[in-house]
Structure formats: C-alpha cells, structure tokens
Amino acid sequence: MWLGFAGILAAGLAIVASFGFCAAIGVDFVSIVGVVPFLIIGIGIDDMFILLSGLSEAQKQATAEDKMAETLRISGVGITITSLTDLIAFMAGAGSSFIAVRNFCIYTGVAVLFCYINNVTFFAACLAINEQRVEENRHFMTCRRIKSKEELRQEGKSKQYVVCCGGHAPKSRHEAESLVDRLPRWLIPKIVLKLPLKILIIFLFMGYLAAAIYGCVNLKQGLLFTQLVSDDSYFWKYSDWSEKYFKRQTAVSFVIPSTYDYSSTSTQTVVQNLISSAQSDTYFDSSWEVSWLKTYSASSYYDDSTESAFVTGLSTFVADQQYAMFENDVIIDSTNQKITASRVYVLSADLADSQEEGKMMLKSRDIASAAAIDCFAFSSAFVAFEQFVLILGQTLQSVGIALAAVFVVTCIFMPHPILILFVTIAVTMIMIGVFGYILYIDVALSAITMIHLIMSIGFSVDFTAHICHGYMISEGETRAVRVKQAIEKTGAPIFHGAVSSLLGVLILFGAKSYIFRTFASVMSFVLLFGIAHALLLLPVILSWIGPSRVIAVGEELSKDKTENVADNKMEEKQKQDLHSNGIENLLLMTILRNPKSFFFSYIETEPFLCALIFVYGCQMEDACSSRLLTRFYTQGFLIVCYLL
Questions:
Q1: Tell me: the pLDDT tens digits for 93-129?
Q2: Which H or E run includes 464?
Q3: Contact residues for 194 (Cβ-Cβ < 8 A; gap 6+)
Q4: How does pLDDT run across 189-198, given as a tens digit for each residue?
Q5: Spatial distance between the Cα atoms of 134 and 143, rounded to a whole number of angstroms
Q6: By CB neighbour count within 10 A (0-12 exposed, 13-18 middle, 19+ buried), where does 158 fall?
Q7: What is the DSSP letter of 167?
Q8: Following CA atoms 87, 91, 94, 100 in sequence, which dihedral angle do they give, to the nearest 10 degrees?
Q9: Between helices 479-506 and 447-473, what is the axis angle to 10°?
Q10: In angstroms, rounded to a whole number, what is the distance separating the alpha carbons of residues 270 and 359?
Q11: Which of 88, 226, 285, 643 has the most CB within a 10 Å radius?
C-alpha cells in the first residue's frame, strides 16, 4: 500500500517540478498543458509496476541490498529505455512551429525526466526501506516485529489477529505477488502459445492494420472553433449556429502596399484583373467583390485628369457618409498627392471544411504572386488556416523524428537486430492504428491531436520495449519458454499499467472540453493497441521467429560457484562444436572477442566484409554469447560513427 502511494507521489512531484521549472525559465502555460498530469501519472505508474515486478523476481536474493541490485538490473534498463524514448519524442515535438505544441512538449519532456529521476532515486529508496522492513519481519503499518501465522496459531491467537498481525518475508515471486499479479502470467501464455490462437491473432491484427491504413488514407484535417471552448459557452452556441445555418465563406483582402499612379488606366486595369483572376477561381465567389476603386470610378467625385485631382476627389469621396466604408481601404500620404497603399476584397466560395479553407488560403497567395502588381493576400482567418496547411507535415516530421529516436535508443539498450526491428515495427503499427482509428470517432488531425499523437509514441514504446527486453534477458532453452518467461517478468506490469492508466483517463470522457475528450479517446486507443501488441502480437511473433537463446563460450563468471565443473564441461563441448562447425566459427569468435581491433583494421578498406560478418554474427547464436554480440554491435556502431 505504502509503495503505491510512494509511486504516485514520485509522479506527482515530477509534475510539480516540471511546472515550476518551465515557469521559471519563461515557458508559457497553454491550456493543453492541463492534460500533462494525467499523462505523467500514467508513465509513473507504469514504471512503478515494472520496478515492483523486478522486486518480485529478486525475492530469491538473500539481503535487501542484493534484492535492490537485482531489481534495478532487471527493471532499470526497461524504464530507462522507455523514459529516454519518451523524452526524445517530446523534445522532437518541441521543435514544432506551433506554440501550443512546442510548450506542451517542453512541459511534458521535463516532467518525464523528473519522473525518471524520482523513480530511480526516491521510489527506489522507498523500495529499499520497505525491503529492510520485510527483512526484519516488521508489520507494514506499525513497524513492530511480527511472527509467522503458524507461530501465532500455535500460541492460540484469534483468526483476526493471525490475519492482521501474522506473516513472514516472501521467499519467492509467487509469495510476493497477489492473485491479480498472477492472472496475466497464467492466462496470456495459454492464449499466445497455442497454434490455433496464434493464427487467429495474426488474422485479427491483419484486419486491424487494414482498417487503420484505410483511416490514414481518409484522415480528415482541421479544427472547428466550437472545439476550442466548453460546450455550454456562448461562443460555442454562436459558432455552432453559424456553421449550421450560414455559408462557410471568408472575406480575403488583396493588399497593395506600394505607391502607384491610380489615375492611370493601366493601373486600374491591373487592379481589376487581380479581382477577376480571383473570381474566376473555384475557391472564390464569382460575383462578390468590394473595391473602392470601382465604386469611386462610378461616383460623381471621380476625376482622373491628374493624379492630384484623382486623390483630391478620392478624399472627398471617402468623407461622404455614403462611402465612409472605404476610408480604411486607402492610405493617402501627408501631402495629399499620392496613394501609398490600398486594398480590395473578394469572398471565398462556400467551402466544405477547414482543409478546403487551407487550400483557398494557398490559392489566394498564388493569385497575389502571379498578379502584375505588387500585392499580398490576407484575412484574419488565415491565422487559423495556417495550421490546416502545416499540420500534416509538422505531425509527420515530429512522429518520424520520434520513431527514429526509438530506433536509436533501442539499438543502444537492446542491441539485438531482430528485437530492434520488432520494437520499431510494433511502435509504427500502433501509431498507424492511432492515426487511422481517429477517423472512426470523427476526430480530425489538428494541433491538438498532433500533441496526442506525439504523446502516443512514448506509451507505445513502454509496452513493446518491456516485453522485448523481458524476452532478451530470459534464459529459456526454446522460444516458447522464453516468451513465457518474458510474460512472467513483464506481463503483469504492462497489464496493470495499461489498465490503471485507462481507468484514469475514462473520467475525461465526461469533460466539457473537446481537448480533454480527445485526449481520453486517443489515450484509450494507445493503451488498448499498446497492450494488444505487447501481450498478443509480439509474443506470437517472438515464439515463431524470435532470436534463440545464446550461450557463452567459456563464461567468465558463474551465478553459482558450485556449477564450475559443469561449466567447464559445457565449455569443452562448445569448443568441440565450434571445431565441428568449421574454422569460420573460430574466426567469428576471434573477431567478437576483439571488435575494436577488427573494425579499426578493416572498416575503411573492407566495409563489405564487415557488413557480411555483422549479418553472419546474427546467425551464429549457438556459438556466441549475448555478451559478446552486445559488445560487437555496440563497439562497432560507435566506431563507425567515429569514423564518419
């Protein structure tokens, strides 16, 4: 119980620290930052469950110090991978041109960093204190020393006393876990390790992917103004009525910022041609225009004998109450002799949606650029239309950078090419699903959903990286056994983290704000798709084509000194196997033992040979240890980067 409070407190302190730090460095608070606490609580709880699962696995150790060391060895890499990829994903979003997106990603990235620091310091310290309490057999509430339930029964204590005040330190994972913890470990292997269910899972995911791709192809873009305010606000009612009962049209002005001789027929023709070119386009109304020049030339004040007479007549024209509407459309210099700037208006056609409005904005700019007169197109609504044009590119850029970061971080902490590929593909599939399935709940791509999609990458990595890391550190002899062991290590934390986060966001479905409701919808998709990929698809794939267990030749240290004789016999047998497999295995072992020397000697002169040996090493898992392969991949990667 106290550890649960400590885990939530660690996440809460991270939120407070993030808000305080970002405010101190001058990052403005925007409304979308209000969802950060829900996000960070979910990430913090996920890391908490992973650490608790590692602690349950470490119950075989004798002392609290050994248990904590084993816990951080098992779970530390997992939460480091997920926290680092989360941080990089949000930092990628911090480069967005949208202020709301940028500020949200900065706040969230800083919170993720503080959450990780709190988990490996504050929460880990709480785990150590709790293990010392358990080691001394003290009660969780009173901290008084207690006796085992058998001893209390022998002393004749009541059942209530035995239940509340009896117990002993757990000596295995089974004793340290509750029934809820053991349920995923028991149920999921029965689903993912049976051939008929494996085939069914593959077909279900093929259908999922097909529906997601269809959604991506037909994804809508844009944001309604009604989605920015509460449903019961006056502005929401006004905007809703405006969209229902009136045409979706926008007035666009063509501003001429330079001085021209407007009394000249050629200048007047050029201005009228500008208006006509806009009216002839499908994005604009063919009959609507507001032109001071056209109205002035048809009035009794018009005089084009000279430029001075033209301007004098124009001054009298705009002073007339009947034509006062044009007063702000013409700028006359201080000498009352020249017109220094002017503007005319056209009206857009009745456009179907915000994506069409963005295209209309671009078209108006093209018309202005092609005009024979120096001008530019402007409308106050262009501020909103800008995001309709940029949002897709910005989203793909941010998500692409985040996926690349996932790949790089996974290469560093999980240096096995097959597992790196699986994690990257799984995260990509989850993102495709989230992109595609928002179509079915009538949510369009906008700056708001862009934030949610960037956020989704972190949760996607959390689930997939944990299961692949659990598979990598498992020691089973077959793929099926290793999958089962990976689920035993990480299945319960993944399941509990997803379910607890899902329960946390469900309350947001009742919010009046579109931002919070959209956050709840996208988060639900991420959590459901993430847990499905982590606990259903990846175990099936790993049980078929996952990397086999690798055994070290001449392993330097044994976990148990009493197994030294058996290890020596195993080493001799493996050496014989190496000789029987051919001299190429011995050559590969020599290279793997000293990758630095090999790479520095041959990477520049024989890059193709290095690539062949790299790929060949992936197939030699029966002859190479994971430690040697890790050393080979990591040092080779760093040396190549150094040479480049």
A1: 787 777 888 888 899 899 999 999 999 899 888 888 8
A2: helix 447-473
A3: none
A4: 889 999 999 9
A5: 9
A6: exposed
A7: -
A8: -10
A9: 150
A10: 25
A11: 88
Using an 8 Å Cβ cutoff, are 479 and 544 in contact? yes
- HSE (side-chain half, CA atoms, 13 Å) at 64: 15
Task: Give the integer Cα–Cα distance in Å for 490 and 431.
Answer: 22
Q: Model's pTM, two decimal places?
A: 0.66
One DSSP character per residue, 83-148 reads: HHHHHHHHHHHTT-SSHHHHHHHHHHHHHHHHHHHHIIIIIHHHHHHHHHHHHTTB-TTT--B-B-
What are the DSSP calls for 39-79, one per residue?
HHHHHHHHHHHHHHHHHHHGGGSSSHHHHHHHHHHHHHHHH
How distant is the alpha carbon of residue 98 from its chain centre?
Answer: 17
The residue written with tokens 């309709």 in the block is 388
Supply the DSSP symbol for 330.
E
How far is it, in rounded angstroms, from Cα 450 to Cα 89?
12
Which parts of the chain sit beneath pLDDT 50? Answer: 552-563, 565, 574-575, 577-588, 596, 599, 602-603, 608-609, 612, 614-635, 637-644
SS3 content of the chain, % helix, strand, coil (to 5): 75, 5, 20
Q: Which two tokens stand for residue 270?
A: 């050029």
Q: How many CB atoms lie within 10 A of CB 20?
A: 12
Pairing label, strands 376-378, 284-290? unpaired
